[in-house]
Amino acid sequence: MEKPCTLLLKYDNKTPAMVINSVLEGHDVPAKIDAMKQAIALLLSGVAMPDPFITVVRYVLSSEDHKLQKLLLLYLEIVEKTDSRGEMLGEMILICQTLMNNLNHPNEYIRGVTLRFLCRLDEAEVIEPLIPSVVLNLDHKCAFVRRNAILALMSIYRFSVGKQLVDNSPDLIEKVFEKEYDHSARRNAFHFLVNFAEERAVNYVLSRVHAVDYWRKELQMEVLHLIRNVWRDNRGVKEKYVQIILSLLGARSVAVTYECAGTIVSLSLAPEVMREAAKTYCQLLISQSDNNVKLIVLDRISELKESHREVMVDMVMDIIRATSSPSLDVCRKTVEIVLDLVTRRNIHEVVLVLKKEVMRTQSADIEKNDDYQQMLVKAIHSCAVKYPEVAGSVVHLLMDFLGDSNVDLATDVVVFVRDIAETNPTLRTFVVRRILDKLDRICTARVCSCALWIIGVYCMSLVEVESGIATIMQCLGDTPFYTVSEEEESGDALKNSQVVKSTTLSSAIPAILADGTYATQSAVSPLTAVQESLASNGNLRTQITTGDFSLAAMVASTLTKLVLRLEEVQPLKVEINKATAQALLSMVYILQLGKSSFLPCPIDDDSYDMIVLCTRLLCNTGGQVRKTWLQSSRLSFASMLADKQFHEAAEIRKAQLSHAQPDDRIDFYNLKGRKGTNQVELEADLKSVTGKFLRDYDGGNNLNCIFQLTGVGDPVYAEAYVTVHDHDIVLDVTLINRTKKTLQNVCLELETKGDLKLVECPQDYTLGPKSSKQIRAKIKVSSTKAGRIFGNIDSVFSNVREGIIIVLNEIHIDVMKFIFPSTCADVSFRTMWAEFGWESKVTVRTSTQDEKELLNCIMKATNAKCISSPFSVGISNISILVIGRRSTLEGECGFLAANLYAKSVFGEDALIHLSIEKNSDILPNGRIRIRSKTRGIVQSLGDRMMEEFGRA
Q1: What is the residue-wise DSSP string for 539-574?
Q2: Cis peptide before 170 (omega within 30 of 0)
Q3: What phi and psi, each to the nearest 5 degrees, are found at residue 554?
Q4: pLDDT tens digit string along 299-335?
Q5: Quick check: helix, strand or coil at residue 307?
Q6: Can the peptide bond before residue 4 be classed as cis, meaning omega within 30 degrees of 0?
Q7: What does the CA dihedral 134, 137, 139, 142 come to, rounded to 10 degrees?
Q8: Which Pfam families does this entry report, sorted A to Z (predicted)?
Q9: Which helix or strand (DSSP H or E) is residue 638 part of?
Q10: What pLDDT does 482 receive?
Q11: Coil, strand, or helix at residue 14?
Q12: How far apart are CA 508 and CA 351, in angstroms?
């Protein structure tokens, strides 16, 4: 059994013991100090040094230097004081005499340090002769000596042998406590009484119930500790205990107030008492300026919310005041707790506060502005979805953020507006009107696409449809988007830019050509001036003329829907033909722009096909086509919202479900023997503490996680059982001596390759004939990168100089054991996808016929989770499906796209995008793209995908 370590140092440089001895024998005090430090570090590193101990006793024990005496006490604390038979070493007699002299030393510092050193000794032979001196120090004139003398006596009394040596310790400490005036010494004395003379401490507290409020905070903390210990035993005086706790809730010390609230929560279940604890936590949350304190108090409030939700619902308005903190972490945790406590009684007050916070971020330039605004928008969105009656009071405010430069914030707002338009029919007219007013101010293509989708789906009346078409045409500006002279001008500028060479460093940037040579290119595009002159009519026109043809395809789709809707609500055929002609003309000019040399990048095939399809539909509209375009998209979106709300409600019900029944059996497996302990119970206990299970290397099959390291015919047979737990890999190696001779100095030497580090080197052992030995080695993992473990076994036969060396088989570490499924928002996924630089592309070629089965196989192989929002739309004969939930996998489709997300135990994000197409007679084919911030996880996942589904 390993001994407890009270001192821990990191030391790599191993100085020989002979050098340390020679220095300690000298008279140079600074050199002796350095030598003592090296000796202590060597002992902590596991190096046995018997000779320096004798040298320390002879040449350091008598030194008068205070620093050297302190190092001597540290050395004596960790040095082995007994021999191999467990008997006390003879040199300890001199140690006892030195300690006795120090306890009677005229210097108060030496006395106090020696008394503190005695707190870490448990050898009765050393302590017994020192007890009279320790007792005498209880009455010393220096408070530093007295408080350490109390601690030393408590440490001695803690051991069973100490109770026999100092059986009158409670009487001595009680007398010291009554006459002591130093606050720290009184606290130590009362701590002794609380732990070893509980009745005396209880009688003292109960006799001074009304005076506890005026005690120092150290004693008040000990009183609370005493009450927690004796609460169950003394039920007759429970009212007095409650009176003490309630009186301490108003204490000046924040620590005492916090402990009082925690004591009440742990000892009582009464709603009135819980309400007092909740008020105390809320007061601490508002009054304290330290963000760490706020986070700790918020954790306690969250725990109280789980057990006493009814009480905490009334405290929502007090909790939400913490959003005034400048720390974004505090605000985020506060909003999470508040959203969980929102009910119909307080929803209006909560939303009002959130609205005020949003307006405050608009008027004040605070550090947490962007992220804080986004968090508030999401909170309001959640409240409006859960309680639609408050949506009308926040839509007007949030729609001002549609044109915000923060992409994430504007995206959250437009998603919120889209959900409100579907779930609240009474607000659709207002939403559509405000979006039409704000469309020319939206500066982000993603937000503009969603706004166009809202316009195309929810413009129902004649006024709304005509206003929608007119607004889009106004944002597009005059057509055509360019003239022939401008195209020639841009072509000439492009030719001139190819022959002009830069002469200044400020206007040129280096470029790498296809053959690997370097060239210089202009940092200013010659088309910029022309494009700026043509893109001055609005943001929508600007984005299209700069090459965003995905947005152009969305414009064509929206115009198609509006024209089809106009045919239903407009009785005049002339107006319908006029709108159709305008829409067709705009689409044709967009196609002309995409195919011209005006832009450096032509239109992509998907956008081109989409715009062409829209032009054909406007030329020949049928009943089935109109139904598909005007109804299917909205029905799919409504189905997505319903499915999302259903799963969120199911998760809430699952979280509130009790996992333990009152009549369940309780297993105290720690009281069982080793044979009676079940591995499942051990892992369940580990799960309750760390939140994660131990994982065998094979993911559950105990046979596959055993690796054979040597051959059966080798003199030493070795096999390893590999267990992975977060950042650690544990190798339980079994060595078997298959010879009839004794093997001495059997050494298992291990080395690692990759981001693996061996933190515990196995020791040397002696194996008898046909005997076995189990050795444990621990390896640290620092990143998600493939690694290998290799090594050899060295040994020599008994009475023979000849040795043996056996090379071990390699163990390849699978990085999938360090990757777990996780979730993130779609906006965060897109942001990380744009920021991460490492990417791996795998072309899929598999024999799996079903694309849904292929998706499940990829999720299983990569330990990733599908996070895509479910969206389904049919276009002609092709059914496009972006999957996210099980309901969207129903039916047949020819195209499948999904976003998968996983996270490693080291905090690395793994982004996976899957795009698969399947024709009727051809196997599914497509591409898997993997992105991450680090190279290791991209390379590892790419190799795994290549092995499973890819081809070169």
Answers
A1: HHHHHHHTT-HHHHHHHHHHHHHHHHHHHHH---HH
A2: no
A3: -70, -35
A4: 889 888 887 888 888 888 989 888 888 888 888 899 9
A5: helix
A6: no
A7: -150
A8: Adaptin_N, Coatamer_beta_C, Coatomer_b_Cpla
A9: helix 633-656
A10: 67
A11: coil
A12: 53
SS3 780: strand
**Does residue 355 contact residue 397 with C-beta atoms inside 8 Å?**
yes
d(CA 683, CA 34): 46
d(CA 903, CA 905): 7
Residue 53 and residue 79: Cα distance in Å, rounded?
Answer: 8
**CB-side exposure of 562: number of CA atoms within 13 Å?**
33
Calculate helix-pair angle for 605-619, 573-595, nearest 10 degrees.
160
pLDDT, residue 508, reads 39
Tokens standing for residue 83: 């021999």
Contact 817, 892 (CB under 8 A): no
Residues counted in the chain: 952
Q: Measure the CA–CA gap between 676 and 25, rounded to whole angstroms.
A: 56
Q: Which two tokens stand for residue 743?
A: 């093997």
pLDDT above 80 for 196: yes
Evaluate whether 70 touches 113 at the Cβ level (below 8 Å): yes
Burial degree of 885 (CB within 10 A; 0-12, 13-18, 19+)? middle
CA 94 to chain centroid, in Å, comes to 54
Phi, psi at residue 537, to the nearest 5°?
Answer: -90, -5
In angstroms, the CA 451 to CA 435 distance is: 7
Q: Letter for the amino acid at 590?
A: I
Given CA atoms 8, 13, 15, 16 in this order, what sign does their dihedral have? positive
Q: In this structure, are residues 503 and 517 in contact, taking their beta carbons and an 8 Å threshold?
A: no
Ramachandran angles phi, psi of 98, nearest 5°: -65, -45
- pLDDT given at position 445: 85
- Please state, in angstroms and rounded to a whole number, the distance separating the CA atoms of residues 898 and 506: 43
CB 789 within 8 A of CB 763: no
Token representation of residue 862: 């990569």
In the structure, what pLDDT confidence band is assigned to residue 396 with cuts at 50, 70 and 90? confident
- For residue range 667-715, list pLDDT tens digits in order: 665 555 544 444 445 545 544 444 444 444 444 445 667 888 888 888 8
Find out whether 49 and 42 touch, Cβ atoms under 8 Å.
yes
840 SS3 class:
strand
Closest CA to 749 of 731, 736, 737: 731
d(CA 925, CA 916): 6
CA pair distance 12, 782, nearest whole angstrom:
20
d(CA 222, CA 211): 14
895-904/878-882 β-pairing: parallel
The token duo for 919 is 């024709």
CA–CA separation, 203 vs 687, rounded Å? 42
E strands within 587-666? none
Instruction: Tell me if 895 sits within 8 A of 916, measured CB to CB.
Output: yes
- What are the E-state strand segments in 513-560? 518-522
Question: Residue type for 603, please?
Answer: I
pLDDT at residue 780 greater than cutoff 70: yes
Q: Which residue has the tokens 């494009």?
A: 531
Q: Each residue of 186-195: pLDDT tens digit?
A: 888 888 888 8
B/e letters for 59-96, b = 16+ CB within 10 Å, e = fewer, are bbbebeeeebbbbbbbbbebbebeeeeeebbeebeebb
Separation between Cα atoms, residue 242 and residue 231, nearest integer Å: 10
Q: What is the pLDDT of residues 278-303, one digit of tens each?
A: 888 888 888 888 888 889 999 889 88
